[in-house]
Amino acid sequence: MKSKKSIFKGNDIKSKRDTRERIIKTTLNIIGERGDVNPTVREIARKARVNLASINYYFRSKRKLFNEIEEYYANEIKEITAILDNPDMDAVERILTWAKKLMDNLANYPGIMLLLASKVLKKDKIERTIIKFIGIRNSSFKKLVSDITGINDGKLLDLKVIQIFSGIINPLIIQYGVGKVFNVDFNDVKVRERYIETLVKSILEIQKS
After folding, report:
1. Phi, psi dihedral angles at 178 (to 5 degrees)
2. Contacts 24+ apart (CB under 8 A), 186-192
3. Single pTM value for the model
4. How far apart are CA 67 and CA 184, in angstroms?
5. Please, are residues 96 and 197 in contact by the beta-carbon 8 Å criterion?
6. What burial letters (b/e) apply to 92-111, b meaning 16+ CB within 10 Å?
7. 3-state secondary structure of 47
8. Which residues lie closer than 8 Å to 144 by C-beta, 6 or more apart?
9. Tens of pLDDT along 145-186?
10. DSSP letter, residue 66
């Protein structure tokens, strides 16, 4: 039987973890909503429902907060990418499931795209995050595409992978960075699902059932 002290300690750890995560997600939401990659600490604290001292307590500085946001998000993407190696799904199902979850995640947190784009333009160091973000190069994605299409040309397979990956990201960059310029709203989950089905099946030349 756990002592009251150990129970309280466990609850305290969970509370701190939840607070950190809330601050991270709030920051991403602010960036995504406003397109401003430099929100004030005061605004982050207010919208996350924490005091100003909490930002310093958990992250020490806004720069470290942003670095942890990248790391947090990269780890989420790593979990999504693991779907491509799931032996319980067939090749098509793996790619469709991965693509839908990735697009859903990016649509829920468009701020990460703006944050990474800003750092790229400033030539700030983000190599580790980008490597995790483009983690598909270390997954079985290329082999799955080969299994589905019968293509053995490595360069052509690379192009197919790039087409799918770019097709997931670019519509969201356009909508959240420029505005809804097409008669399509990618905030709608059903629209995203239909788009992914069309995108993947057209690139891999899968006949509709």
Report:
1. -110, -40
2. 186/103, 186/107, 187/107, 189/104, 192/100, 192/103, 192/104, 192/107
3. 0.78
4. 33
5. yes
6. eebbbbbbbbbbeebbebbb
7. helix
8. 84, 91, 94, 95
9. 999 999 999 999 999 999 998 999 888 878 876 666 678 889
10. H
